[in-house]
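Figure 2 data, in text form.
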Amino acid sequence: MDLTRDAMLVSLRINNWSGRRYDREASQDVTARNDADPSAGRFNKRLLPKTAFADMTKTMSKARTLHYENSLPWDDTGARLLTVANYDHYTATIDELSEQLVRERNVFIAEYGPNIDQARIGLGGLFRIEDYPSQDSLRHRFAIRYRIVPVPDAEHFIADLAAGDADRVKRDIENLVQERLEDAITDLYKRLGEAVDHVVQRLDVDAEGKPLIFRNSLIGNIRDLVDIVPRLNIFGDQRLAQLCQQVKDRIASVDPDELRPSSSFNPATRQRVKRDAEDLAAKFAGYFAPPGAALKEAA
């Protein structure tokens, strides 16, 4: 594996106007009427109806979720590791959501005036027209963007250092990269393990012995994971690949309706999937033992 060739770093930036505003006068009035310390609380006004932001909020939330699902942890500054194998999928997915947000933003701007009129009634004496940004400025308040840069190579940092310092700095950087790679592969095991464990829990029965109810997303999330994980398995971890394939064959391939009371419910299939999920959950739990063991296996 050549990290600088097979991966890159991606950062997601989402611009968003909250549509809320701190009202100093209202805060002072509330604390004074209740004989409270002025610092006891803050009154934040909702400037527009919550429904005005609903579509954009949903799209921005989906972008964050898909950003994390399609990349791996890297550092504390917001950058995440994106594999070359998953580049096309990531960029197509986020670009689509970015375009969707633009369309929703245009609707929001078109309805801005009527929503302000509605807020004028709802806020009563708290309404201040100066709290509202102009329509033109709103075009820059809502956006989804990502930035992609190469993964730094230790050699980039040591060109001007003395020989002894260069060796030490290079060794420190390589150790840091190794730690981050271990965190990244652990993240993949954890994602799959938690999803499988959730299947185990939802295929249990209630206090009366009746099958618990679950949504299609229980299996849908598993299907999404077994599709994403191979593209993120930059390390060529064979154990992870095998477990992922087993999850795909034994759980993801099942129709959710076979697992719950429905016209196609099959109690035998439900019992079989639950046993398989329990077996796989135990295997994933067993992974979290010696730090770095999986990387050594994959090497």
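Caption note: Residues 157-161, 289-299 have pLDDT under 50 and may be disordered.
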